[in-house]
Design goal:
Pfam families: ROH1-like
Oligomer: single chain
Radius of gyration: 24 Å
Keywords: Membrane, Transmembrane, Transmembrane helix
Membrane topology: Single-pass membrane protein
Number of helices: 11
Main location: membrane
Number of strands: 0
GO cellular component, one term: membrane
Length: 333
């Protein structure tokens, strides 16, 4: 199907391609949530980022296995790769900034919990102030995340495969890269929707059934995007599950913090404080784990760019324009 005229893929190359696509299908099936409540949880988002890292490492291994020297890469392949990678680096920076912003909200919650150790009126006033600060902080928008839609739309345009002439290995590489791009764009659009609280950030990609991973992807996309749209259409303000759990407890405690706690309510209020502490810790820990995965993906992208640029410089495979203009101009951002 992908071999150029007058040539055929060897059984070895067919085997490598099939292994890559079957592995991708397995990752997609594993990512498909068994329970709709898993969607938009930090644990699911961590798993999604792990799948991205694994798939990008798989394509790196495939390139090494097919032994397609950089000198044989068409300039437009390299242009496309470098353009995609710098856009993904921008997306990673946006996600990292949002995770950091959400984690900063933990400081407000710690102040709330500290001030609720006492039931004096002064401490309650401070607790109310910290809660107001938390609501304002969590409810604010991150312009970097808001701008992700524009970047993702550009990445969708890159899904059209560059034409490959007289190279079976080249066509194999382009086919495999298509799967990597589809998974990457899909996961990033889910993250953008989750962090922004907007279903407009979601992308629905159409994948032909000629790919071994197509059915697994279509199932995943339908389940995840469908649940996110249901959640957002219900009017929920807090989209991330762990963040919503904290907000629910805050809303439950708020009237008592505002009006004071009667003697008969003190035990129940202490339980609410403990509940808030537990949920706040779970949120903070989940954000920390997700940060590590996003940072890991960022490093994989950087390493891929560094490797390619090093080979281009040492092999003289492409024009000076690509090395000094397109490449380095994009890299220093």
């Amino acid at each position: 199907m992908i071999a150029p005229k007058g040539s055929q893929l060897s059984p070895r190359l067919v085997g490598l391609l099939n292994t890559f696509e079957e592995t991708l299908a397995g990752r997609l099936r594993k990512l498909n949530p068994k329970d709709k409540d898993d969607v938009l949880s930090l644990s699911w988002m961590k798993l999604a980022m792990e799948s991205l890292c694994g798939t990008h490492n798989d394509i790196k291994s495939l390139i090494a296995e097919i032994d397609l020297p950089v000198s044989n890469w068409d300039e437009k392949w390299i242009d496309v790769y470098l353009d995609i990678s710098v856009k993904l680096l921008d997306v990673c920076i946006a996600f990292s900034s949002e995770i950091s912003r959400l984690n900063q909200g933990h400081l407000y919650l710690q102040c709330v919990l500290h001030n609720l150790d006492s039931t004096t009126s002064d401490q309650f006033i401070r607790a109310r102030s910290s809660l107001d600060g938390w609501r304002h902080h969590i409810g604010s928008k991150n312009p970097r995340v808001e701008n992700c839609s524009t970047i993702l739309d550009k990445l969708v345009e890159s899904l059209d495969l560059p034409k490959v002439k007289n190279s079976a290995k080249g066509k194999l590489l382009m086919r495999a890269m298509y799967g990597v791009k589809v998974l990457t764009i899909s996961v990033c659009s889910v993250f953008a929707a989750a962090f922004s609280g907007s279903a407009k950030k979601l992308l629905d990609l159409n994948v032909a059934d000629t790919y071994l991973w197509a059915q697994a992807f279509n199932d995943l996309q339908g389940n995840v995007n469908g649940e996110i749209r249901n959640v957002l259409s219900s009017g929920r303000v807090m989209v991330l599950k762990e963040l919503e759990a904290v907000d629910d407890t805050v809303k439950e405690m708020d009237p008592k913090i505002q009006d004071g706690v009667d003697l008969s309510e003190r035990n129940a209020f202490k339980n609410s404080i403990s509940d808030l502490d537990r949920k706040a810790q779970k949120l903070s820990q989940g954000l920390d784990l997700l940060t590590k995965e996003v940072d890991g993906f960022f490093q994989i992208l950087l390493a891929g760019r560094d490797t390619l640029l090093s080979k281009l410089r040492s092999g003289g495979a492409v024009s000076d324009r690509m090395l000094t203009g397109n490449v380095e101009g994009q890299f220093v951002r």
